[in-house]
Every structure is written in structure tokens, then in C-alpha cells.
């Protein structure tokens, strides 16, 4: 938001008022933070020794292992969900009515069930309690596959009609048109949205905590509960460390989405990537975490 | 069928638990989201920074981690003996508020610039510009994303069930421990969620139709 659109350039009176607001606001936030810190301090959560647990090689290895198993699930689920999404998307756009309907029902159903319940049902019901990893991967694949399929479909629908007509006119078959004309353009224009959904996939791997898969959150809980230092459990410290890891991972992916979008903007190939957002069709029925950003046209209130 | 009839009271309790949790945290999220969005466009720099931090931190943290903080740090350290429903509402509401704030902010971005300029030209203050001119117009673009945010919220409340809050997921866990077939439980639980999500969808469709104004 360019600062001058919603409010005037502050005059002397407004400057004083803004200064007062600034001071009061800052004091209020600082006061809140200070109060929380005071309570934490009173409970002995700020003892320096509590941080020492992160100096042990064992704990560090634990964190590294947990990070790796989170990334492993994320990688598997990410790849599988994209493959699954292509299959679903093709089915959804099929010329055969029954195939199309099966895809529609499947996508709508699994998008409206909480992922946690899908994962739990897979874990208890089908895969058996010994394989939490595959329950997690499969659950993430099904759910995110459905969402990504809708993203892809929006991309395919956004390809200009002339492209398909030209391809058919050249004598390409249906499969060739889909594989060599529609999908490359759809993927390219939807790449930012696809990566945003991958961020959601990454965050959702933390649901593995519920089915006892030893990923980041699970090991955070383990560390916080099993390494008391002088009778105090280092909950706050572990939350800070693991929260920072999650935020760093997610911001890195989000940054990648932005980078791809901007790089695509600069390219002269003619296909402009959509903004990193969920397409309208997806937003209408709902994914887990949508960040819909309506297109701000030039001349609107925009940053 | 027997699973449902034998445990009707439990299912009802779970359904109402999910419903209440969704409604209360949605209200909290909307109020907080509006305030944070206001902060992010306000003339006061510390508030802008606070808003940006709030949105970026909450949006990039897994909700499960927030629940972990809410259920294991807050009661132990800050408020001993706090109700678990309140904690669940806070976790869900705070998390969702960051998404609401982003939706509102991008809604504000779609209001034509001339509107705000005209409001300023007739001498309105920032609060007046927002309240009387910009926000009412932004509402129309904010409503469709809000519906998907609330549907996501409904699904996210399932995580509260894993932290011993009585809701549909909690019911499914209890029944599965009692030895009922998970497939049958799954169908009924799914139905419960579908009822809520489709109700939200329909409600917002109605709202959208009401708000549709020819421009």
C-alpha cells in the first residue's frame, strides 16, 4: 500500500497523533511480550542451562534425523501428489462422462474431508499401525493430489482455445494435444500456485505427529518432555528452535514461488505465470490453506 | 448403520463440538483478521510491522505446532487450569486470522484508487476512509475467499480433536479404540464434516448473491 493513498501526508497535528499511537502501540506490544517473558522467567524457563541441551550431539542428531524424515515424507508426498494430480486432472477433463464423474466425486470428497481423518483412517484401517510413514505419505498424496489437480485444471482451462484448435488442425491426436500443448503451458502458468500448495504439503507433514511418525514435531515433543534440566522442561526452547526450522523451510519455498513468478514475468516466451494464488475454482470449494489474492489491476490500491 | 445408532449421543456431541469450535474460532478470526489488516495499511509504522510479523509468522507455522504451544506451553506457564476449548479456539482463531487478514488486505487492494482519493479529498480521516468508503467495497471481493478460509478452518478443527477436545475426529478415535470398523466410522464422520462445509458453502453463496451489485 503506497502510504499516501489511504491517508494524507501527516501534518504537524497528525504527526504528533501518529507518534502517540506509535508509542502506545509499541508499549502495548512490548508490555504483552514483557508480561509473557516475566511469567516464563518466574517459571524458570529462561535459565541459560535450558539451552545447553542443544549442545549435546545426541539432541542435534535427533533434530537432524527428524528434519530428514520430515523432508523425506515431503519429497515423497510432493512427487506422488503431482503425479496423482496429473492423472486426476486428465480424468477430470476426459471426454467420457463416467470417468469425469468419478474424478469430480473423488476430488470433491477428499478435498472436504480433514486430512487428519484421512491419514488416521489409512493408518488404523488399511495400512496397519506399523507403517505410519506410508499412511502419512498416502494421505498427503490423496489430499494434495486433489487440490493440485484442480490447480492444473484451472491452468489447462486458461490456455487459449486457439492453441488446441491449431494443434488439432496440425493433425495431433488427443493424447498429443494434452501432453505436448496443454499440460506444458498449464504447468508453466500455474507453477507459483503449485509451489504454494507444496508449502501447504510441507506444513501438513506435521500431522505425522498424531500417528506417531517421528518427524520434526514428534521429536520436538520428545525432546521437550524427556530432557528436564534441573526439574524444568525446556518446552519454550524447543518450540522456538523447531518453530524457526518450520518457518525457515516454508519461507524458503514461498520465496521460490515468488522467484518463479517473477522470472516468468520477465521471460518473453509469452506464457505469463499466474500470481501465486489459488485459482477461483479451487477457492470456491476450499483447500486447506488458501491465500487468494484477487488480481489488483493497475490503478487500484496496490502496494 | 449400527455404529451410528449405538453411539448417537457421542456422535451428536462430537458434531456439536466441531460446529461450536468452528463458529467461535471463525468469529475470533474475522475480528482479529480485520484488526490486523487495518494495522497493515495504517499510517502508524509499529502497527504495520506488528501486522506483517503476525501474518508471516502464523501463516508459516504448522497449525499442529500452534496447538502444541497452546496445549503444553500456555497452561503450564501462563494460565494454569485454562479450559481446553478456549485454547483450541485461540489456536484455530489466531491461525485463521492471518489468512483472513491477507484476504481483507487483498480485497482492499482491489478497490479503485479514486475512491480513497475522493474520500481524502472531502476530508475524511484514515478511520473514516476505511470504515465508510474502502471496507464496504472491499467486502464484495473478500467474501468468496472467506468462504474457502472457513471451510479450511472447519477441517483444521479436527486437529483440536487430537488434543482431547470433543469433536468429530475425537469421536472417531474413541470409537476406533472401542473396536468398531474404521471404514464405517469414517463414512459417518465424513458425512458430519460434509454437512458443515456444504452449509458454509451455501451460506456464502447466498451472501455473495445478496452483495452482488451492478457497477
From TrEMBL, chain A:
Signal peptide: none annotated. The chain crosses the membrane at residues 20-41, 73-94, 101-126, 236-257. It is found in: Cell membrane. Residues 280-303 are annotated as: Disordered. Residues 67-257 form the ABC transmembrane type-1 domain. Gene3D superfamilies: MetI-like. It comes from the Bacteria. Pfam families: BPD_transp_1. The keyword Zinc does not apply. InterPro entries: AA_ABC_transptr_permease_3TM, ArtM/GltK/GlnP/TcyL/YhdX-like, MetI-like, MetI-like_sf. Keywords: Cell membrane, Membrane, Transmembrane, Transmembrane helix, Transport. The keyword Oxidoreductase does not apply. It is a multi-pass membrane protein. Belongs to the binding-protein-dependent transport system permease family. This is Amino acid ABC transporter permease. It comes from Streptomyces oryzae.
Automatic annotation (TrEMBL), chain B:
Its main location: membrane. It comes from the Bacteria. It is a multi-pass membrane protein. It holds the Pfam family BPD_transp_1. The keyword Zinc-finger does not apply. The chain crosses the membrane at residues 20-41, 53-73, 85-104, 182-200. SUPFAM superfamilies: MetI-like. It is found in: Cell membrane. Keywords: Amino-acid transport, Cell membrane, Membrane, Transmembrane, Transmembrane helix, Transport. Residues 15-204 form the ABC transmembrane type-1 domain. Belongs to the binding-protein-dependent transport system permease family. HisMQ subfamily. This is Amino acid ABC transporter permease.
